[in-house]
Write a structure and sequence with these properties.
Blueprint (H helix, E strand, L loop, with lengths): L21 H13 L5 E3 L2 H8 L7 H10 L4 E3 L2 E3 L3 H5 L47 E5 L5 E5 L7 H16 L9 H12 L5 H13 L10 H18 L5 H22 L4
Antiparallel strand pairs: 1-3, 2-3, 4-5
Helix pairs in contact: 1-3, 5-6, 5-7, 7-8, 7-9
């Protein structure tokens, strides 16, 4: 059953949203009426077209691909997910609607809780819907409440990892969001970005500065796990906006601007 959804006025001037074709914008917003309260909708382009654009001569399959390229939807296993849907719509838990998508449950549903109880304040847990963990794996929950599967990292504390975590946490708080807690998931994500993904510490700091200076991304990148997940998308957008310069040049440029602002603040405070 479709539901009434709200549209925030800032969306109309969002830099990424305005890059979409007019019908893609309309389709994306229209999908909110038919998505469940977790932001899921069956990935059936013909059905979506008949619901939202029944008399328009457009290719819904191509519009969905455009939305996916733009990062407005994610597609997996026959389902479409609208990222951060519950943050955009704030559905009433009393009338929360779910669907048949894997893992789609109501907030507070027992199936969302861990097997065998919790292990501390949300750092390590095993969701019912994902099955038993393999050897050397843990289920970790980050500061945003996202859960995902990853190999456990048991390295000793590292200064580069701590600097990255503290950098993002500081900027998130400076932007007016609740100060995040740096969890084991944050540190593992920072290690993975450095050691497995091949990012340098300078690049990661630059990516943090870039996303936290962007009006859209600052509200979506609130943790290191989310930064790692969206890193390539951020890099491509930074390159596109800067006319195709390399990621090192874009991140470096962002860092230089950040340092200049910090120096200016210090001069104003009489520290220089």
């Amino acid at each position: 059953m479709p539901k009434i959804r709200g549209v925030h006025p800032d969306i109309w001037t969002d830099e990424d949203f305005v890059e979409l074709s007019p019908f893609a914008r309309l389709l994306w917003i229209g999908m909110w009426n038919y998505a469940c309260d977790n932001g899921h909708i069956a990935d059936k382009s013909k059905q979506i077209k008949m619901r939202l654009l029944p008399t328009d001569d457009v290719n819904a399959a191509e519009l969905l691909r455009e939305l996916e390229r733009n990062g407005r939807i994610e597609r997996s296993g026959g389902w479409i997910t609208v990222p951060n849907f519950t943050k955009r719509q704030r559905p009433d838990k009393r009338y929360f609607i779910t669907c048949e998508a894997p893992g789609c449950t109501k907030p507070g549903d027992p199936e969302r809780e861990t097997r065998g109880g919790h292990a501390g304040k949300g750092d390590i847990s095993t969701p019912h819907s994902m099955g038993p963990l393999g050897d050397g794996e843990v289920m970790v929950k980050d500061g945003d409440g996202d859960k995902s599967r990853e190999l456990a990292l048991t390295e000793a504390p590292r200064e580069d990892v701590d600097r990255i975590c503290e950098h993002l946490a500081g900027l998130v708080a400076a932007n007016g969001s609740k100060a995040p807690t740096i969890t084991a998931r944050w540190r593992d994500s920072a290690r993975l970005m450095l050691d497995r993904d091949g990012r340098t510490e300078q690049e990661i700091h630059g990516a943090i500065d870039w996303c936290q200076a962007d009006e859209f991304w600052r509200g979506n990148i609130l943790s290191l796990p989310k930064l790692r997940e969206k890193y390539d998308q951020l890099r491509l957008q930074a390159q596109r906006r800067s006319g195709g310069t390399s990621r090192n040049e874009e991140w470096r440029s962002m860092q230089e601007r950040q340092m200049a602002r910090a120096e200016a603040r210090e001069r104003e405070m009489g520290l220089r």
